[in-house]
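#onboarding

Welcome to the new folks! Below is a worked example of what a typical request in this channel looks like: someone posts a single protein sequence, and someone else replies with the predicted structure as tokens. Don't worry about understanding the tokens yet, we'll cover that in week two.

Example request:
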Amino acid sequence: MSNITGLTRGGASWEPQFVLELDPKKCIGCGRCYKVCPRKVFDLVEREEDDLDDDNMMVMTLADALDCIGCGACARVCPKGCHTHGAAPVAA
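Example response:
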């Protein structure tokens, strides 16, 4: 359970799911998540040498995961399912 909840325009309860990880092994560096993100959560960087693939030299990375607003747009546009999301931790 999260300590953050909201309401949709229709009044339904909604719990944001924040990006926790991005799997560089699955990422094809297409930039769709970067383009759809309303914040500066992602960045396109060169793929690590041990992950090099002849077809793609770039990969997305989490630039500032703490700036994520939990909208989930990145996961909806990702063709490879690279993103892992979860609820905000409950404050102690």
